[in-house]
Amino acid sequence: MVRNAGSRRQKKFNREAMPRIEVSVNIKKPKHEVYKVIKDMEKFPNFMRDVKSLRIVKRVSDEHFITLWEIDIDGAPINWKEEVFFDQAGSQIKFNMMEGSYKKYHGAWSLQDSRLGTKLIMVVEFDWGIPILEKYVGKALETKARRGLLGMIQAIKKEAENNHV
């Protein structure tokens, strides 16, 4: 079952903060197996429809990568360079866009024990970087982003439950 927790907006410095999207899914595998699927990021294009390319361009350490992403959303190519921090003991993977198609993009994957195995939660905050565009089509962009994130966690669920480990 995929749960869509909705987005929240907060006031910050007298203007709205970046949109925040949270999505989650229960996976019938233990945390360490789900974590392995996420950490093996370069395989995402093999099982995530919208991810066209994902390369690790630098392994700063075993727990700190620099990645290049290329995704396709309704025919629009979106690219970014991202810094990723893995914390297996804390069951969390944090990421922050360094440069790319958005003004800002950051968030985290969190894994929690659940009665079904693992609950995977993805929280993302982003700023499209085009205020006038956001004013008129912000909700539509947010809906597309939410759909994309749900697709990612559903793909991880399927990969973990059916194909991995």
Question: What would you note in describing this structure?
Answer:
- With 165 residues, this protein is of the alpha+beta class.
- It has a single domain, classed as START domain (Alpha-D-Glucose-1,6-Bisphosphate, Chain A, domain 4, 2-Layer Sandwich), CATH 3.30.530.
- It has three helices and ten strands.
- It has helices at 31-39, 44-47, 131-163, and strands spanning 2-8, 11-12, 15-16, 20-27, 51-61, 64-73, 76-87, 92-100, 104-114, 117-127.
- The strands form two sheets. Strands 1-4-10-9-8-7-6-5 form an eight-stranded antiparallel β-sheet. The protein has a two-stranded antiparallel ribbon with strand order 2-3.
- Strand 5 (51-61) and strand 6 form a beta hairpin.
- The chain is globular, with a radius of gyration of 16 Å.
- Mean pLDDT is 84; it is low at 1-15.
